[in-house]
Amino acid sequence: MGKRKKAEEGGANWMDTYGDLVTLLLCFFVLLYSISTVDQAKWIKIVKSFNPDAKEVSQIVDGDTMEGEDDVPGGLDNEGEDLTLDEFDELFESLKQAVAEAGLESEVELFKGDGYTFITFRDNVFFDGDSSVIKEGGQTILGQFSAIISGVSDSVKEIQVLGHTTQADPNVINEPIGDRVLSSERAARVAAFIQTRTNVLPESIVSIGYGQFRPIAPFDTEENRAKNRRVELLITKSDSVEQSLEKYYEEMGRQ
pTM of the prediction? Predict the structure, then answer.
């Protein structure tokens, strides 16, 4: 009788094991559910912290499958951090659409890089001859661009306005003062125009005159010289890493 009682008592131990297993499974599924919603902004920062030179965070799944009910585009997370995830990327598409609507595809070149948008206004979009006065048509397109940029100003780290001239005579360098002053005045006027049309902080708008010394084409033909006469806008994202102008040119295939 004693042996039977001992066997009966031991036979019920499987219930304890089963109960522990069910409890562990429940905890496991609760854990899976708790991590099923990933904060995309924080995930990007984590990945980039391990590989800061990466141009893309390929591990990121499409935002629609990662965002939870509490994730609101352009809203704030629990620490009050701005979650404007796609705002800066949308800037490029909006500018591209404005160029197409204005029929300026051959006069305005746009390039989207990692954390920046680069815009080139060629030859006489803004200015006539040796003038630094922005033409009426140039003011129109620049006003449209300024309005678009203003809409994403919280994502903008800096706007650099770069003025360039070309060497008029292939064999003779330009007169230094006139060359540099003209490129600087043009860049300054465009920067001032943008400042009056956007809510980007004035200290974040910078104008630089390079004269003839950052050419993107030889000076041998009039067509090539026209390519060098240009105004460029370099718009960088708030969390981007600064690079040299030569590096940006290299990424755009200009070197």
Answer: 0.67
